[in-house]
Amino acid sequence: MEIQDLLIISSTKFNILRKISYYIEKYLIIIILILSAFALKFPNNFKFMTNYTSLFLAVAMFGMGTSIEVEDFKNLLKEPKLMFLGALCQYTFMPLLALFLSILFKLPKDISLGLILVGACPGGTASNVLSHISGGDVAYSVLLTIASTILAPIVTPLIVYLMAGSIVEVSFFSMFMSIVQVIVLPVGLGIIANTIFKKKIKKINYIFPLISSIAIALIIAAIVGLNSEKILTSGLLVFGVVIIHNICGILLGLGVANLFKLDYDKSSTLSIEVGTQNSGLAVVLANTNFALNPLAALPGAIFSVIQNLIGSIFAHIRANRRELIENNIEYNA
Predict the structure, then answer these.
(1) What distance in Å separates the CA atoms of residue 9 and residue 52, rounded to the nearest whole number?
(2) Taking the complete model, does pTM exceed 0.85, yes or no?
(3) d(CA 325, CA 328)
(4) For 174-199, what is the HEC assignment?
(5) pLDDT in tens, 9-59
């Protein structure tokens, strides 16, 4: 076989992988729902995966790291007010909403803890995709995600300690180390890999979103399998609270953006960023730090599904409105 033939075969394989990656990302929510349904029906086939949720998330975070460049950190310093605004909204609205909903609905201890964990986590990488769909400022979205992720090792354990310390025993240091292991180190390694092997990484950059998507889907399926009985008995309550949490986060983010008169694109981005959490981290923190409270991982798993559904709907609404605004400006011009 000649070299030219080998190159053609290699190129064909890469194209197939690109298509697989595209379709898995596009239909991730459907894949999550299907896997979750199977996990509910055959929980014993999925429970074992809870032992690997930290690994799954670390892999997803490494993928995120490969999309970050050193230049991004320089850009963080160019608009400190916008970064501060995003981080402030992220780490105030979502945790306070979680605490308020826990009290309002008199949630069980484990569920309250899980909801607070979700609220205390940094922005999720799904926000970058949703921001793109909405026609928002994707660069701003990426920078907000990076900023909240950098703060996570200190801020997330602190919030959980302050808000949930009276509910369960919370170890600040243990949570700090968990976040370092599954967020800071993998993201850091991803950044280093992207810096050293930039050209090679660029050729295969479509693989990392594929791996991240599969990792998140497996994390959710594992938690659904582990808590299948509880989901069937108390799942509706958790779903309802999580939906309210997510929608309120998005609307509060939009309200703040309008209050500070951000442009339309940045307003879409900020609202999506505030409402979108790294729920995979919430699941891992629940599993590794609160093993005696197994239901604490449930809100994170459900939030992963809900934020993608509601986020997609909101993103399409914003995109359609943006198109109407642009057409109206062109018409008046």
Answers:
(1) 34
(2) no
(3) 5
(4) HHHHHHHHHHHHHHHHHHHHHHHCHH
(5) 445 555 777 777 777 766 777 887 888 888 888 888 887 777 777 787 788
